[in-house]
Design a protein that fits this description.
Layout: E1 2-4, E2 10-12, E3 19-20, E4 26-28, E5 36-43, E6 49-52, E7 61-67, E8 72-79, E9 82-89, E10 99-105, E11 118-120, E12 126-129, E13 139-141, E14 156-159, E15 162-164, E16 168-176, E17 182-194, E18 198-205, E19 213-220, E20 225-229
Antiparallel strand pairs: 1-2, 3-4, 5-10, 6-9, 7-10, 8-9, 8-17, 11-12, 13-20, 14-18, 15-20, 16-17, 16-19, 17-18
Length: about 230
């Protein structure tokens, strides 16, 4: 099988199958192991909390999530070898509605379907079938170089069901009180609210100061917020 490299030169693949997208770009190459949906978890907590993710650092993974109420923030914490997804309503707490978590990673070998197409790698492991739920590519929201549409300033509503990749996109700092002032800070995390027809992708302040705050300042990561179209999962 001939495969074109980035310079348009044809090279011979030794095994496997090649899929291209509508533009002719390689989507699955002979040496590719696609990331796919490994697990979908639906939580119905009455308040913010944490969920221990069934993942480990020995194999790559991507976490994406959304909630059924607005302003639910997500961030991941790693302690030793344990990864925890934390979720809460921005600043005020309260009911987080339904929280849906998507775990994407390598599922090898893939379970064989009763019929259809199956592809093996050079090691004889099935890596792709017609039933594999291959991960849609993450889409970045926000404009690189912008001062108003990047990092924690991103606020987009897009059609369909999307899940956001948890990340810290900024920090807010300030001073609480006047007679005995003390410093205060809070990370700014990503959120995704799925209304049933559309998804709002934004960011929010994780913690409330708990008192009158002065000299407030913000630091923006100036990173895009990434989300995955999960309507097919």
């Amino acid at each position: 099988m001939l495969v074109s490299n980035l310079f348009g030169e044809s090279v011979m693949a030794t095994w496997g199958a090649l899929f291209t997208d509508q533009y002719g770009n390689p989507w699955i190459t002979p040496d590719t192991t696609p990331m796919c949906l490994a697990q979908k978890i639906v939580l119905t907590p009455s308040a913010g909390g944490a969920y221990t993710l069934p993942v480990n650092s020995s194999s790559p993974f991507i976490i994406a999530c959304h909630a059924s109420v607005p302003n639910v923030l997500f961030y991941i914490r790693k302690v030793n070898s344990t990864y925890t997804l934390n979720y809460s309503v921005a600043s005020v707490g309260g009911n987080t509605g339904t929280v849906t978590i998507y775990i994407f990673g390598y599922v090898i070998p893939q379970p064989l379907p009763q019929w259809g197409v199956a592809i093996w790698n050079a090691a004889g492991q099935c890596i792709l079938t017609n039933e594999t739920k291959v991960m849609n590519p993450p889409v970045g929201y926000g404009t690189i170089g912008s001062t108003t549409d990047i990092g924690y300033l991103v606020d987009k509503t897009v059609s369909g069901k999307w899940a956001v990749l948890p990340r810290v996109v900024g920090i807010v700092v300030g001073v609480i009180g006047t007679s005995q002032p003390r410093p205060w800070s809070s990370p700014i995390d990503t959120s995704a609210y799925y209304s049933g027809t559309a998804t709002r992708i934004a960011a929010g302040q994780r913690e409330a100061p708990g008192g009158e705050i002065h000299n407030v300042g913000y630091s923006n990561s100036r990173d895009q917020i990434f989300a995955i179209d999960v309507s097919r999962y």
